[in-house]
Amino acid sequence: MKKTMLAAIGVLAAGIALAQQAQKPEDLIKFRQAGYKFMAWNTGRIKANLEGSYNKDEVAKAANVIAAVANSGMGALYAPGTDKAVGNAHTHVKPELFTDKEGVGKVAVAFNKEANELAKVAATGDAGAVKVQFGKLVEACKACHKDYRVEEKNEH
Ligand code: HEC
Asked: In angstroms, what is the span from residue 143 Cα to ligand 1's centroid?
């Protein structure tokens, strides 16, 4: 019993330490990039299922992750001081993301809507419907990148 309590307190302390570190601009940049990367892994999984043999559970898992990241409030990771490279964190964010609040709000809300809808559709296991909704999600990713992310030379 005592051991469990101590372990629980240990986890709590680690969580608090992490939350404090997260205030550093370079960490915020890394967290948001990690969020996008993790979503990209999951969009890749869905694409592979749509193009190959379709596994309903795989697709549902991936869609749920994307929706969870979309709903996680990533806006908090665009705090002041994260608009340019800091420490060993580089960033591809455009300055407009910090100034065009209305435009960012629009693409972010649209993205969340498509991500949540995809999770719903994926739960039904209807591959045809997933394909249509997946297309809408990817368009929503691109809509934000077009205006608020600097194009990388080696990206398509
Ligand atoms: C609301 C805007 C927005 C949406 C929506 C969005 N992105 Fe991004 N994405 C960005 C910005 C801004 C960056 C650059 C972040 C940085 O470098 O600080 C980025 C970076 C990335 C990166 C590179 C991460 C890295 O390691 O540097 C990938 C991959 C990516 N996004 C994939 C996606 C995918 C896949 C989706 C949709 C499922 C998506 N993004 C949706 C704005 C967005």
From this structure: 11
